[in-house]
Design a protein that fits this description.
Blueprint (H helix, E strand, L loop, with lengths): L1 E4 L2 E4 L6 H7 L7 E5 L2 E3 L14 E6 L5
Parallel strand pairs: 1-5
Antiparallel strand pairs: 1-2, 3-4, 3-5
């Protein structure tokens, strides 16, 4: 199945959770927010939210500044 993460395409062998996807694409699990198809997925739902064919995932990194 194919998904996109920050506009990069990834082929996954089978459906997986957001948490599993972060590991597969070597993304940090700390300091980020995850949106799937423009909907924020709370961190507590990462283990149970299953990604599907064609999902568009956006990883948003928290930053500080002034």
């Amino acid at each position: 199945m194919e998904i996109s993460v920050n506009q990069q395409h990834y082929q996954l062998k089978e459906p997986c959770s957001v948490e599993q996807m972060l590991s597969l694409v070597n993304a940090p699990a700390k300091g980020i927010a995850v949106a799937v198809n423009h909907t924020i997925i709370t961190k507590s739902d990462w283990p149970v939210h299953v990604l599907r064919q064609g999902d568009q995932v956006m990883l948003i990194k928290a930053t500080q500044g002034g």
